[in-house]
């Protein structure tokens, strides 16, 4: 496990957190985009998400119609772009304008401008998300940066349409010094049990945990352990 944690993402809670996080990730956007272990983590997420979504929503792909997908805290957008075969409308949102610029350049270079767009978030509380709109919402490596993760989780769930899914990705077993955690804006690591607790505490109707899948991303002798936590907004 790398103690430098290059796969970190960057949503925060509160205006001061937003400003600090935005500046930090703006400054490091190109470096993050080039990080091999961060890319490997995104690829591993795609490898898990693709077969899951094909299993739960096969009718969408059989009919030739894709899904409306949001990646909240998208960074350079490698996860949502890796899901392009599923997507009819893909939106990547991030606090850092430079991350969105990299994402939009990748959209153009891949010829995907007809169905993808980036959006710079003006607030860190997910209040800009529409209600019950997306088939799939992705939140990769974000919640451990949030001072109030339960409120962000609630808004993410609310953005999912009935029968849709929210997929969280978090890092597992990280060991950083207090100084590094403060530097990287880590409010607290979220494992499967802690996410269980957040979800149960919200007491949202017609919402259920589907599964938690574990994986390891590796690059150049370094590794990161990941958990992908899948939530369904049950149709009634």
Automatic annotation (TrEMBL):
Stretches with biased composition (Basic and acidic residues): 1-21
InterPro entries listed in its UniProt record: Methyltransf_11, SAM-dependent_MTases_sf
Highest rank taxon of the organism: Eukaryota
GO molecular function: S-adenosylmethionine-dependent methyltransferase activity
Segments for region (Disordered): 1-27
Domain named Methyltransferase type: residues: 70-168
Alphabetical list of PANTHER family matching this protein: TRANS-ACONITATE 2-METHYLTRANSFERASE-RELATED
Protein name: Methyltransferase type 11 domain-containing protein
Source species: Rhodosorus marinus
Native organism taxonomy: Eukaryota, Rhodophyta, Stylonematophyceae, Stylonematales, Stylonemataceae
